Amino acid sequence: MxxxxxxxxVDDQSRALAFYTEILGFHKxxxxxxxxxxxxxxxxxxxxxxxxxxxxxxxPAAKVFQAAIYTDGIPATAxxxxxxxxxxxxxxxxxxxxxxxxxxxxxxxxxxxxxxxxNWIQLIQE
Length: 126
What we know:
Structural class: alpha/beta
Number of domains: 1
CATH class: Alpha Beta
CATH topology: 2,3-Dihydroxybiphenyl 1,2-Dioxygenase, domain 1
Number of helices: 3
CATH superfamily: 2,3-Dihydroxybiphenyl 1,2-Dioxygenase, domain 1
Helix content: 25-40%
């Protein structure tokens, strides 16, 4: 058994696709029209076959959950970086809004940014 697909709720699939590909640099894997919504997945260069599904937050429970953890400042997921300081600089220059500069906690560097689609995303370097 392995992890192939993980999902994150987004409030706008088109905006999410633009952010995750044009800003973060991920690559689109699937963009399948399902009528009202799309099956939309992206992947990063170093993630092997693992994909991130950009799920519409259309279900009322998804909207409530997403809004609650965003308001409380809780990241919806985390991404890894080999050089968090360089990644923070690159993303900041592209206009990504971070809560602050990378901070070290017990040997792990952490920085949290807004994905513009209703989520805080944690960036880590171990």
